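Reader question, answered in our methods column.
A reader sent in the components of a multi-part assembly and asked whether the whole thing could be modeled at once rather than chain by chain. We filled in our standard form and ran it. Here is what they sent:
COMPLEX SIZE: two components
ENTRIES:
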Amino acid sequence: MTLELSKLTDQVQAMGKELAARRHKYEQMVQLARRWLEQYADRGEQLRQPAYAVRAAIPTTEPLNFQGPLPPAPDRFTIIAADGSQIQPDRHGAILYYLINIGSLVYRHGSGEAPLAQSEPILGYAEEELYEDGLLLSGNLLDLRRDIAELTRLAELCTSESHRPVVALVDGTLLLWVLEERSEEWQRSQVMRYLDQLQRIQESGAVIAAFASRPRRSEVSRLLHLASVDGDAQRALREPNPLEHLPDRAIFETLPPGARSALFVSPALINHNFYRPLGQTVHFFYLNLAVAEERPVIARIEVPAWVAARADQLALVQAAIVAQARITGDYPYALARADELAFISAPEREALEEMITTSLMRTGIVVTPSPKAYYKTLTRSGRRRYGR
Amino acid sequence: MRNLNLRVGRVLRASTRGFTIGCAVMQPDIPAFGSFVRADGTAPRSAIYGLIYDVSVEDDPFVRQFISANPPEEVVRDQRENRQVPIEVSVLAVGCADGEHIRHCLPAQPPVTLDWLYQCDEAEVRAFTARFDYFRLVLEAREAPADELLAASLRFAAAARPEEERERFLIGAGRELSRLLSGDPLRLEGLLRRLRNP
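And here is the structure of the entire assembly that came back:
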């Protein structure tokens, strides 16, 4: 082993002490945040404008401390989840290619039927697929392509699904992450591809939500700090925030089982610049998935404006997600399965590489990895130490 | 003619002595222990024949989560019908073919990963078991329960023949076993008993 664990003993012990000390401070922050949530519950309207300036959660018309009880789920409804994974192009590999694999599950609650499970692999190997504006499609660029592929798959499935009502579900966020250093025109073109699919889902009559497990965002914490300085954005930016880095989910652990928090609007720049003009403004709320007498499990749920605007659709999203999460305990079953269907394991990747290599050999082409990749396979495949 | 409906699964790992394939849960045609199967060889029109000697269901933590719960019917059916729970089927290589002729020997090269494995149809089983040279490969196999496997394969081979030919076929097989195991009467007796009383 190169990682000599014995040399980490002192550092790991120090880390444990630091975390214990931080725990106490954390609990005080949570108490303060909950007190402020009650104290400033009706200041939403006053805070709406400055909230955007400090990148805090933007209040809607609901009081900040609103708690929406768990609505009854329809006897029958359909959850469609999609998730993706990818193999990055490897410059040192034998062949340059990428793979995106989209897993999806169509789960019809109350039907007694086996869900429809599918995975769709997309192999990119042609020059025009591998490069975009002269850049190799890897890293964040490939993530972006995968996100769009996920939503496209969801839109296709929502359009063809006949068992209504339908709730489409993605993992994480509806806010597409685009490279800010790229031109606005490029960003717009990417976001528009994504928003086109959101619109297809809207037109299909389905609703859509994004589910984030153990969310770490602090947008409501920032809003409460803003409220504590009378909504003065300049002061909020200048003065230290006693709730700094406190994840919102800690504030909402008091939600009753199945209940949701107030709705907020995401302060993300992309939401304001691209989503809002097309009526797709991303809203979010926190939701306690746990059953009574269990420890709270808080998830962050994002929905577009057209879902947030209708109480019946919002209730459907809330009830459907809780019903799904309670199958496993704390995470939507359909998302867990979509992830499983999308996942590319190391042996599968090796098998694919072997399949590609064999296929090329059958056409008379012999390919080899770079010397660097070759020696990595030797040094990383397990070592034996002789002598001391 | 190969019948694609009789696909068992794809090759996961392979050697010249045998190979392992993965397949989905509840696949109705998962062949039983002792069945004859075939994979494509690396050369065009070549094939590798084998006998299934083990079917194992790998551990699955996701399913374990539902053991003590009361999952909805949709989940039960999803787990049974859709999940890619790793079922591994191990195959002992017992022969190969170059397009026309079947030979009872180990293949020169193993099948390629992700190639399909097919269950042999009755005609193929009859053609393969027209001779008994593969017995030695099975009897000498260390990785498989050899005697059980050979007896099971002979029962499949007999069943692939018209009823009036079955007894003659099994008597012929018994004679070949008597010759091969003449130095080990106890083993021979056990094997013949397995053939008579499945």
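What stands out: Chain B has one domain: 4-196. Residues 163-180 of chain B form the longest helix (18 residues).
Send us your own complexes using the same form.
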